[in-house]
Amino acid sequence: MTALIIAIDGPAAAGKGTLARRLAALYGLPHLDTGLLYRVTGRRVLDAGGDPTDVVAAEAAARGIVPADFTRADLRGPVADEAASKVAALLPVREALFDFQRQFGDGRGAVLDGRDIGTVIFPDATAKLFVTASADARGERRWRELRARGVAAELAIVTAEVRARDAADEARAASPLRPAVDALVLDTTDLDPEGAFVRAMELLAGVLPSSLIVRRRDAG
Ligand code: DC
């Protein structure tokens, strides 16, 4: 039987990560937050005193990733966001990270969230969700996350950064952010994480094999 792959794409702070973790737990699958690969790559370039738009430095950083990089405490926040967005625009970086993502899902199945999982990494995924929300809703969520971590930030600035990063992710030539033609669109603007999970299960019920369809009362 082919492995179950659930691809979850969408812009920043749309609720992909929380949803991906819950779906992974529900189906007993490993979960990969692929944004971390670009965050780690951006950080490694900065550590080496390099520029995240320098393709040679960024590709070397992507190829040199070691497991300990994923436990770094400085992978979130505006500096990491910007460096990640810059290295993510470089095709050699994306190619360097391709095999890791494919191998993560091949064989045993997985839930992966990112920007190009359903379009590039797993174009034949069992199910593809494109999770989105208005830029204002996403800016406010990101602002609340920062405040909860004790980072002082202004809502208007955080929202503007979210918009700028979306624009960069959508406009880049290498794997631009866009829904796969066969993606199911989930708009979380007016949904809390529980509402988004329930709606995702409703959408998935239309595409998953019947043995995997979970009715609401059975779900975690
Ligand atoms: O999801 P995130 O905010 O952690 O992603 C960080 C950056 O990496 C963001 O600019 C989008 C980019 N990214 C990407 O281009 N492709 C992915 N599969 C995941 C993230």
Could you please describe the fold and organization of this structure?
- By secondary structure, this protein is an alpha/beta fold.
- It has one domain: Rossmann fold, CATH 3.40.50.300.
- The protein has helices spanning 16-27, 35-47, 55-63, 78-88, 91-105, 117-121, 135-148, 155-171, 193-205; strands spanning 5-9, 31-33, 110-114, 127-132, 184-187.
- Strands 2-3-1-4-5 form a 5-stranded parallel sheet, with helices on both faces.
- Helix 2 crosses helix 3, helix 2 (35-47) packs across helix 4 (78-88) and helix 7 (135-148) crosses helix 8.
- The radius of gyration is 17 Å and the shape is globular.
- The chain binds 2'-deoxycytidine-5'-monophosphate.
- 2'-deoxycytidine-5'-monophosphate binds at residues 12, 34-35, 38-39, 84-85, 88, 114-116, 165, 169.
Q: How do the strands line up in the largest sheet?
A: 2-3-1-4-5
**What amount of the residues lies in strands?**
5-15%
Low-confidence stretches: none
CATH-defined topology: Rossmann fold
Number of helical segments with 4 or more residues: 9
Q: Give the termini separation.
A: 25 Å
Shape descriptor reads globular
Observed structural traits:
single chain; 220 residues; alpha/beta; Rossmann fold; five-stranded parallel sheet; 9 helices; binds 2'-deoxycytidine-5'-monophosphate
Quick synopsis:
The protein has 220 residues and is α/β, with parallel strands linked by helices.
Write the layout of secondary structure elements.
Layout: E1 5-9, H1 16-27, E2 31-33, H2 35-47, H3 55-63, H4 78-88, H5 91-105, E3 110-114, H6 117-121, E4 127-132, H7 135-148, H8 155-171, E5 184-187, H9 193-205
Helix pairs in contact: 1-9, 2-3, 2-4, 3-5, 4-8, 7-8
The structure holds 2'-deoxycytidine-5'-monophosphate.
